[in-house]
Every structure is written in C-alpha cells, then in structure tokens.
Design a protein that fits this description.
Layout: E1 9-12, H1 20-37, E2 41-47, H2 48-59, H3 83-98, E3 107-112, H4 116-130, H5 132-142, H6 152-160, H7 168-180, H8 182-188, H9 190-212, H10 217-239, E4 245-248, H11 251-254, H12 270-278, E5 282-296, E6 305-309, H13 317-322, E7 328-332, H14 339-345, E8 349-352, H15 363-367, E9 368-371, H16 373-376, E10 379-386, H17 394-398
Parallel strand pairs: 1-4, 1-5, 2-3, 2-4, 5-10
Antiparallel strand pairs: 5-6, 7-10, 8-9
Helix pairs in contact: 1-3, 2-3, 4-5, 4-9, 5-7, 6-9, 7-9, 8-9, 9-10
Length: 408
C-alpha cells in the first residue's frame, strides 16, 4: 500500500486466466485499496452486460428483467463464474451495504467488447422504455448484424470478402442518436443512460473489431485494448474526477506493451495507455508462477480442463524467481529494495503467458515472449506453486437465489 501511494489507477495482472492464487491476491489487494485508499471502481476483463449483473448484486438492485442473455455464460465461463470471484462479490456487497454514501460505494464494470449481441439487446430494451420510436429505428439498424448472432466472427469474414455489406454506418447512427438525446434521456435516470451509452459504444467498437480481425491482427488487438481503456476513462469520468480505479486483466494487457515483444509488432495495451495518461499515478502489478495446475482449454470454445503447468523455461524470468530461496514474494520494481536488483533484471528475458487456452506441448512457441520485467511492471508478485481456479458447478449456480449475479 505504501508503494502504491496516491495512485489513481492500479492495474492487477495475472499470468493465466485460470489460477486461483492470482484471483485471491487481487481480491486481497483490491479490498485494501477500497478500505484504506478510497477506491470505488473495479474494472475487469469481462463483458459490460455481464459485469452489470454483478454490479446490481453488490448494490442490492435488480438487473433489467427484460434482458434474456445469461451472465458469464460465454466461453470461458470459468474466468468469472468461479469460487474466487464468488467470495469477492460477497465482500463487495457487504462493503456497499455498510457504506451509506452512494458516491463512496464500489461499482463493478466490464471493459471488454465481445458482448456484441448482449449489448444490442441492452440498448434496445433501454430505448423501448424511454423512446419507443427511436427504438424502432435502432432495431432496424442493428438488424444488419443479426444474421451473425451465433457467430459474430463470421461477420468480419463475409465483409472482408465483400459477400455482405458492412454495418458500420448503421451502428454509428444509433450511437449518435443516443448521444444527441443525452440531456433528455439522462434526466430521468443518469445511471441507466450511462449503461445504455456504454453498450452502444461497445456495439460500435465490436462491429469494427470483428470487421478488421481477419486482415489486421495487431489492429484488432489495438482496437480491443483502446476500447478497454476508453471504457475505463468513461467510467472514471462518470464516477467523478476524484474516483480511483483498480483493473483486473491479464499481464499481457496491464504490463506496459512498450517493454515487450508486442511493441515490435505495433501493438499497444491498456497498461501502456494508462502510463501515458496517468504517469506515476498508474501502478502496474504483474503476477507469475512456476508450476502447479491451471484451468484452461485446449482450443477456443473447448471444454475446461485442469492442466499441469510445466516448470518454467531455463531462460525465463519465471526460472529466476523459482530459484529464489522463498516460494512466494513481492518484488518491487519501480521502487526496488536494492537498485542493483532492478538493473540486473532489465535485460530482456522470456516471460510466460497462459490465457484461456494452454498447450503445454508447444509451450515455448505458444506461451512465451520476450520482455523487460522492470520496464513492464512497477511490481511483480510471485507464487512458486499454484492451483487451478475452481469454477462454479451448475448445481451450485442453480441453488443460488435469483438476486445472485451467477443465478442463471
């Protein structure tokens, strides 16, 4: 907490999307930031409509009953529908319940842009309530995207091959209509309008993302991270200039891209953008492990498996950390305990990244990249041996009350 100081934005990473220790330590740090430093925003690598369900839960309010989409039901479900997040959501709800001033209560927000059709649904439901005529127009415009509801990735493929017209102007027009009536709509309920506005922006950015992902890989990565940063900025503006945000995302998003191989490919990320915007008021924290188990799939959309994490490569930062005589530790990098430690770590080494997919058989090619750890992060948290995150079983979910964020 002392090293974080008066930072306005704290970015908490993870070396995989399926490791319990990373979730639990991020929750522990976030609780301290909320209680001791007045943080009121938790923004995560999740879809906006899904996170809104959890936000309703921690505020004790009801989500929109007209929304048909189920929260956290998109692959990979274990990334948020797990016992570690379950416990953290209970803590957030208890904190908000004892915090009487709404401006001091914590909000939970999703930064990602994969929820194209859930967001369309949210915008239309909002307009149906506040402006049915505009809703009719928006429904026609968004109809351009509906053929691809089950597989939005196909939209990008068919527009690239000119087999189908682009829907860009339709979704932009809907967003412009919404913003044009900002004053009129927000007077009734500013929070509901903000939610609809963010969903409309998401639809606009997601349409562009899917349209470009087939022919410009680094462009689609940059669009996604720029969207996540822009969403973060919108949330901070909405909550007030003095608000403070903690971000939960993968190391590959929160570590400064300029200190990694990503930069050579022309890629940026939210960690880089946060440092450029907030300078020393942004504090980036990475996480790492050597071995243990992890929840991951073998291919996109595949079933979750509990996989063995291979011992770290001999030329990696992870191997250096494994050889330290203690199993778990914090490694300050911006304000090192000894400057020589930082200097010796500056030279680029391999670093491991496990996402929702893990292929141990091709680990060096699939999951390692070069980076300079002290330039990438302000601090690094090490767990030598880790265990897989525990997903919520269907039986557990079905037993939850209707107000619970994972109650499907």
């Amino acid at each position: 907490m002392t090293r974080i100081g008066d930072s306005q934005v704290v970015l908490l990473g993870e070396a995989s999307h399926g490791t319990a220790e990373f979730y639990e330590m991020r929750a522990r740090i976030t609780q301290e930031l909320i209680e001791k430093k007045g943080f009121t925003i938790v923004a995560v690598e999740a879809d906006w409509p899904d996170a809104a369900h959890l936000d309703h839960y921690i505020h004790g309010t009801e989500p929109d009953p007209l929304l048909e989409s189920k929260p956290f039901s998109r692959f990979p479900t274990w990334m948020w529908a797990n016992h570690s997040v379950l416990e953290f959501s209970h803590w957030l709800k208890a904190h908000n319940k004892k915090t009487k001033d709404p401006s001091h209560q914590v909000g939970f927000y999703g930064l990602d842009l994969y929820s194209l059709f859930s967001s369309i649904e949210a915008v239309l439901n909002y307009l149906d309530k506040v402006d049915p005529k505009t809703a009719e127009v928006a429904r026609v415009r968004y109809g351009c995207l509906m053929p691809w509801a089950s597989d939005p990735g196909m939209y990008g493929q068919v527009t690239m091959t000119k087999q189908y017209r682009e829907c860009e102007m339709d979704v932009i027009a809907t967003l412009k209509d919404l913003l044009h009536k900002r004053m009129e709509y927000s007077q009734a309920d500013g929070e509901q309008f903000f939610n609809a506005e963010q969903n409309a922006r998401l639809v606009t950015d997601a349409e562009r993302y899917y349209r470009t992902m087939y022919y410009a890989e680094n462009s689609s990565w940059n669009q996604r991270d720029q969207h996540m940063f822009d969403t973060l900025q919108s949330v901070i503006k909405f909550r007030g200039p003095q608000s403070k945000a903690v971000i939960w995302e993968h190391n590959s998003h929160v570590g400064d891209a300029r200190a990694t191989q990503m930069s050579a490919r022309g890629e940026l990320n939210i960690g880089q953008l946060a440092r450029q915007e907030y300078g020393d008021k942004a504090y980036n924290i990475g996480f790492g492990t050597d071995h243990g188990t992890v929840a991951a799939a073998s291919e996109w959309g595949g079933p979750m498996e509990i996989k063995q994490v291979q011992p770290a490569h001999i030329d990696s930062y992870e191997r250096l950390c494994h050889e330290v005589s203690t199993d778990n530790f914090l490694l300050p990098l911006r304000k090192p305990l000894k400057e020589i430690t930082r200097k010796k770590l500056l030279a680029e080494r391999l670093e491991r990244a496990i996402g929702v997919i893990y292929r141990p058989e091709t680990e060096l090619q699939s999951h390692y990249f070069y980076a300079s750890l002290p330039n990438q992060f302000d601090e690094y948290i090490w767990f030598d041996e880790t265990r897989a995150v525990e997903p919520l079983a269907k039986e557990t979910i079905q037993g939850m009350p209707d107000t619970f964020p994972f109650g499907l």
